[in-house]
Amino acid sequence: MKLACLIAMVIGSLTGLGAQTQNTAPSPWQQPAAALAEQAAAILGPGQAHLTIRNLSTISTDQIPSIRRLLTQELKARGVIASGAESANVLRVTLSENARERLWVAEVVEGDETRVAMVRLDPGRAQQPQSASGLTLLKQTVLATGGQVLAALEAPNGLVLVEPEEIVILVQTPDGWHEQKRVGMGQTRALTRDPRAVIYPSNDATGFEVYTPGTACTGAYQPETGWTIHCRESDDPWPIAQFIVQPDPNNGAASIKAFYNAARNYFTGVITPNVNLELPPFYTAVPFPRPAGIALLIGGIDGKVQLLESAPLKTITGTRDWGSDFAALQTGCGPGAQIIASGSGEASNDSLRAYELPAKEAIPASAPLAMDGTVTALASSHDSKSLIAIVRSATNQYEVDRVTASCN
Amino acid sequence: MLRQVAISCFIAVLALPAVARTRPHFGGTLRVEVQGDAFESSNGLILGLLMDGLTRIGIDGNPQPALAVRWTSENNDHRWQFWLRPGVQFRNGWPLTSEAVAASLTQSCPTNCPWKAVHALGTSLVFTSDFPVPSLPSMLAENQFLIQLTDAGDGKHPPCCVGTGPFQLAQGLPLSLVANENYWGGRPFVDKVEIVTHRSVRDQWLDLSVGRADLVEVPAEELRQAQQQHLTVVSSPPVTLLALAVSDSSLLSNPNLRSAIALAVDRSALSNVIFQKQGEVTASMLPGALTGYSFLFPTDRDLNKAHEVRGGLNTPPLTLAAENNPIMQLAAQRLALNLHEAGFNVQVANAATVLHKDLALLQLTLASSQPQAALESMLRSVGVVTPVVENTPAGLYKTEREFLGTHTLIPLLYLPRAFAISGRVRDLRLSPDGSPILAGVSLEDAQ
């Protein structure tokens, strides 16, 4: 139910086209008003009471008249007439809230005695407006979960999540995502803080390959037997260029792999095949089409973004606001492909933004797309036409978001 | 309004760590300075770095696996079983066993425990109790129940704090901790934490300003000044309850006298004058941001009613004990003045040296952001083992009202806990009790 709600909510914000549904739903205050009236009437019994309402919550003051109206109606239906100040009984309603939920409290004052009734409400959730200029990035939440997610892949036969110690297969059902299989990766050593993983589709696109520090796994799907997953200890280099934006069978970019420092959170700088160039340790390396062919864009742990096109490495400017994660997206807009980089700016949450690299400077190509937390991983899909972003919220909830782009 | 501000602050503090321009860097030394003893169990920084609990409280306020990976309850929460995380070792290399955990818990909680018995069962721990303990997983995250080695193998107690935590004590001075490379939760980002203790706040701020410290304390009453000095401050929601404990024996055994004291205290003056408006005035044990019902406990002073309730009863001079630091002594003097106006003669004394006390000014820590566990913990800290069976706002309110109705504890103010950090420090989060989570901190200039 929760998943379905979240997906529905985000689908609403996905298009960013300003489509608004007509609000024909009953008032959200109907049920709590009835519940509070029920409890208050049980204390008061039939008769009159002077009703006062105080708002200590974030509920907008323009909502108070309708809440008062609902309370009055519900009380009346239970034999309690809201009267003037001359009544001997007082019903003092306070609309309050705490960090988790709203709380409506009724203090029933009869003479010297005060009795209390309470009703809890789900917190309201503000809608975040989105605006964009130029190329527009769009976000759709695929999944929201309480467990930590390191990487995710939308496979034809399900959604594959890489958690710190397990691989989880989810399948879509009418009720939302349903966990089909969960397999431990059997790591023998503790994961680092800020653990990372990558997941790629297998060559036939029906299975997957997962790399985490010290462990590699493969998953295969057969219609008859379902998913089979095998893991092994591995210090093998991780593929960093499994998919390229404009595949070119002659340049070999698809086979680039990099050694990952399993005790830290970055790649060592050693890649295979050897490029006869000393690379710095890096967080991210992304193949990207350039006029001369596929280049590798490298995000170093020193914060520099450099382009491996031909020796020496070229420093890319205009990346001051980039985070450690970026990926290539084939949008078909402008030059056809853009880099999508995470960044936080002055905001509390990260954002994603598209950039183009006509020369050695990154040029913004879209407005920032606000994410609901910190982007902890970013990876291109198999066709580079969408990205999967893993986002950790301030409350340590994780979202798997699909990011696409539309040309303006 | 105050509640809304408090909730906004709470959200703001939670949101703060979400800022992450780049991935955190490993390495470097984090330099920390504190006023008190870093080994204190309530507000000390160190114990939680050296040791783990069976559980920990997540940022959402719910208990999360720590040394225990899962748990179940039976018999209406009278029996709990916790399964240990495999492959964890103490600092000395000894494996974490259920026997060692049971011994640690027995040592750390000899009386007034939220359980009747704890014993090892295979790789699990079994807790039993005469009353339901629905919030036991949350309570086991408290500092009091951190797990340490209690037997060095020769029947003797090992030195302090041989735990499984993210850091290990290093030899020599200054007091320093080094990263546990094999920590089950992931090696901390910094290599080392150096802690200078018993440093005045002024000296701490000076060291921060000249680059000799990375993380220093900001007492609640200094928050305004820290802002004026443009320090980068990370502040918790209200987590420290300033409360007046009232003895219900001898001089104050008459409940009317205790009630008169409760009516006579002037919380607003305490907040405005002593704590520079940085506290949240409260007459409830849990802060409003946690429950939403704290307004049901009136905070206003009613001196006329205090006189009326006292009914002309006179008491000999009362002793009010307070911690021997300027701000607590000042607050105690202010309360003594309040009570004098209600007809009580109160003398302020140093809590560390006074032999008899009728009143005590306490600082109680909100140990959990889960209301039920927080209330039970707070009650336990004042010697009341009362399970809060009904985990609803109404149930919590009922428990608070019944206990506070005895007027043996008079909540006064909720205060935040705050730290100022240097520009090198990234991703500092505060735990639900306001202590900094140093294992998650990284340094901007580390490589």
Describe the structure concisely:
Chain A is mainly beta and 408 residues long. In chain A, 10% of the residues lie in helices and 44% in strands.
Give the topology, please.
The complex is a heterodimer of chains A (408) and B (447).
Chain A: H1 2-14, H2 30-44, E1 47-55, H3 64-77, E2 80-83, E3 89-97, E4 102-110, E5 113-121, E6 136-145, E7 151-155, E8 158-162, E9 166-173, E10 176-184, E11 198-201, E12 208-212, E13 215-222, E14 226-233, E15 238-239, E16 257-260, E17 267-272, E18 282-290, E19 293-300, E20 305-308, E21 314-315, E22 326-330, E23 337-343, E24 351-356, E25 363-364, E26 369-370, E27 374-380, E28 387-392, E29 398-406
Parallel strand pairs in A: 1-2, 1-3
Antiparallel strand pairs in A: 3-4, 4-5, 6-29, 7-8, 8-9, 9-10, 11-12, 12-13, 13-14, 15-16, 16-17, 18-19, 19-20, 20-21, 22-23, 23-24, 24-25, 24-26, 27-28, 28-29
Chain B: H1 2-15, E1 29-33, H2 47-50, E2 55-57, E3 63-65, E4 68-74, E5 79-84, H3 98-108, E6 117-121, E7 124-128, H4 136-139, E8 167-169, E9 175-179, E10 192-196, H5 201-209, E11 215-218, H6 223-228, E12 232-235, E13 240-246, H7 255-264, H8 267-274, E14 280-281, H9 288-291, H10 303-310, E15 318-322, H11 326-341, E16 346-350, E17 359-365, H12 371-381, H13 393-404, E18 409-415, E19 418-421, E20 425-426, E21 442-443
Parallel strand pairs in B: 1-10, 15-16, 15-17
Antiparallel strand pairs in B: 2-3, 4-5, 5-7, 6-7, 8-9, 9-10, 11-19, 12-19, 13-17, 13-18, 14-18, 20-21
Describe what this molecule looks like in 3D:
The complex is a heterodimer of chains A (408) and B (447). Chain A is mostly beta strands. Chain A has 3 helices and 29 strands. Chain A has a 5-stranded mixed sheet, covered by helices on one side. In chain A, strands 22, 23, 24, 25 and 26 form a 5-stranded antiparallel sheet that branches. In chain A, strands 6-29-28-27 form a 4-stranded antiparallel sheet. The two termini of chain A are 35 Å apart. Chain B contains 13 helices and 21 strands. In chain B, strands 14-18-13-17-15-16 form a 6-stranded mixed sheet, with helices on one face.
